[in-house]
Design brief:
Length: 172
């Protein structure tokens, strides 16, 4: 259970960001914080797909990178791992984005299996990953039922607010 000073610090940090809603559940304890900017529409809207360059790594796609700056150096570096087949983005795909800054994890614990893999079919509410922020593990759930087409972030890497994490092809 969180202490009052921890909750106050969490509220202060959330108010400094663009996060409109924050939910945390640990055992019997749960907390939901909504800012003045909160509206139901922000929860149910489908994010648009923004084409971003990606680099394949170890069987899944790496975190999208920002636009490259002009340079004379080669754009890619050799990799010792086999490249993942490039999945083409469909116009009907949904991109699940990070609701916060933190560290992205594909498993609930190091000794546990992955939440999802490319090709898995997920239902609304299924856990896709966790993002650790300030020693709190926040479960990210699927907002649509569909097939996981791409995983856009490496396990145990930092993510930014609104960074694309997964691409899901909705079920028809």
């Amino acid at each position: 259970m969180m202490e009052l000073k921890d909750i106050q610090e969490l509220v202060r940090l959330i108010n400094k960001t663009n996060i409109s809603e924050f939910k945390l559940k640990e055992g019997d304890f749960s907390i939901a914080i909504r800012t003045k900017n909160y509206s139901e529409q922000t929860v149910i809207t489908q994010p648009s797909i923004i084409p971003m360059p990606t680099a394949p790594v170890a069987g899944y796609m790496q975190a999208p990178m920002s636009a490259p700056e002009p340079t004379s150096a080669p754009a890619s570096t050799p990799s010792s791992t086999p490249a993942a087949p490039a999945a083409t983005a469909s116009s009907s795909s949904i991109v699940v984005k990070s609701p916060m800054v933190g560290t992205f994890y594909r498993k609930p614990a190091p000794d546990k299996p992955l939440f999802v893999n490319v090709g898995d079919v997920v239902s609304v509410g299924d856990k896709l990953c966790v993002i650790e922020a300030m020693k709190l593990f926040n479960e990210i759930e699927a907002e649509v039922a569909g097939k996981v087409v791409r995983i856009l972030v490496d396990d145990a890497t930092p993510v930014e607010y609104d960074q694309p994490l997964f691409e899901i092809e909705p079920l028809s």
